[in-house]
Amino acid sequence: MGAIYNVLLVDDEPGALLSLKYLLDWEQLGFTIAGEATNGQQALDLFHDGNYALVITDMKMPVLSGLDLIAQLRALSDVPIIIMSGYEDFSFAQKGLQLGVKDYLLKPVEEDDLVRLLKSVAAELENERMLDKKLHFGLSATKERIAREWANGFMNAEEVTERFNLIDIHVRERSGICCIAAELDSEAWNDSSMTDNDLQIKRFAARNVMEDIIGLSGCLFEESDMKYGIVLYSDLDEVERADVIARISLMSQHVQQYAKIGITFGIGKLVHAINEAVKSYEDAKRMLDKQFFFGKQSVISEERLFSKEANDDEQNWLHANELIEQLDKQDSEQLRELLTHRWELLAKNQVHSNLIKTMILELFIELFRLVKEQGIDYEQLFNPRQLDYERIMGARSLTDLFQITWTKVQETAELIKSHRELSSENAVKVAKRLANERYADNISMKNIASQVYMNAAYLGQLFKAETGIGFNDYLFQVRMENAKRILSSTDMKVYEVAYAVGYNDLDWFYKKFKQHTGLSASEYRIMSARTIIPPAMI
């Protein structure tokens, strides 16, 4: 069924209003009586204050007649209007029809006539609603596509301005532009009780919260199932850095409060040219990658980072790219030799400790990216519990800093090596095997991923690409099929069956079992006792 539309009834006879109100089941036809008035002026006041999709009015009324009411309503809205009139008022009805009313009903109103008219109006209103919805989503999709291409550098300033102008959006670049990168917490995706549909609802809720807070001051766009980009701008006021941070902090709180899912934000630099938005977005993504220092569900900006002294040389003495390249070759001896040489240069040139610490943090970020991009489970090496940030900032000597850095580089190399020894195909097979063997346990994609040295989100994508369904849905099917098998072949109590297939919440098991089979657990047991079920069907 479509939407329920509000109706305003207008008649100076209370009995007529009451009769009309209880003549039929309005909600079954898609309407609800949201307002009642006994004269035209009262109706006009109610219309100003309410949101009405249909007006049904008498013609002869005190204070303001039905005809005058229609004329004033037409100056405000094209809301459908139905006239109620007697034979003697037919000339008034004709004038009403000239003002664009939908139709008229003869008093006393017959149920069949009213039902016919209401069905016609409901169909028209529903068509208009769907057209508006399509237009809204069409504009939203266009706006999102422009923002994504803009932030990622696929459009120049002229193209951005031209395309936004077409959908009546105006960006004053001198007012300031700030990009934000966001990532939903993967913990929800590792909850085995959540189906793909449950997760989509959470994503939808999180997106709605973010869009509500952004309002008309920016665009939200999706980069993947878990990652979003935001471009904040203004066509009137200056974009203030403090306001951006406050708004994103509020967004973080509300997503967690209302969508019930954690989210981490990285805030880019404030820029003042359309072409510089790509730099702001790159900066935002770098901030987001620092989440392993600050923890998930954080709002990370340059204000939170350690700032090196202004007089320090900007040269990156560590040459992180060369270290990453050597690490990728899996030559531990050459890697240590290269890192040792870098430390000798740092000591020889007496590089300030603050700058060295900043460069090590940046190197750790690059290591984090390398691991993450290869779909490896990075949680065991890169997370706030490792206290990397605290140990780097608290180190008192160059030797201490070398040991911290070499340990992390070495651990990263070992993690990558282990990951490469296990192919993606084997990882999916392992996930399926564990789901079939350990369905009774609190198993999740996260703990499976840790066993195959993969990132849980990445393994989840591989699993869905190969099997056609998400891991949680696969596990759900395995549990339900085993529940059916146990119910039909044993006399275990239902709560024992629920526990045996991995459900500690009996109500949840009842709900999911009936959703899967169309029968309650008890009904299924009775049915299976009457029917010989071949093993292949279980």
From TrEMBL:
Q: What positions does the domain HTH araC/xylS-type occupy?
A: 429-527
Tell where it localizes.
Answer: Cytoplasm
Q: Chief localization class?
A: cytoplasm
Superkingdom of the source species: Bacteria
User: Which GO biological-process labels does this protein carry?
Assistant: phosphorelay signal transduction system
Q: Which residues form the Response regulatory domain?
A: 6-122
SUPFAM superfamilies (alphabetical): CheY-like, Homeodomain-like
Sorted UniProt keywords: Cytoplasm, DNA-binding, Phosphoprotein, Transcription, Transcription regulation, Two-component regulatory system
Q: By its UniProt entry, which CDD domains does this protein fall under?
A: REC_YesN-like (cd17536)
Q: Which GO terms describe its molecular function?
A: DNA-binding transcription factor activity; sequence-specific DNA binding
Q: What Pfam families does this protein's entry cite?
A: HTH_18, Response_reg
Q: Name one GO cellular component term.
A: cytoplasm
In this UniProt entry, the residues modified to 4-aspartylphosphate are D58
Protein name, please? DNA-binding response regulator
Q: Can you name the source organism?
A: Paenibacillus agaridevorans
Q: What is the lineage of its organism?
A: Bacteria, Bacillati, Bacillota, Bacilli, Bacillales
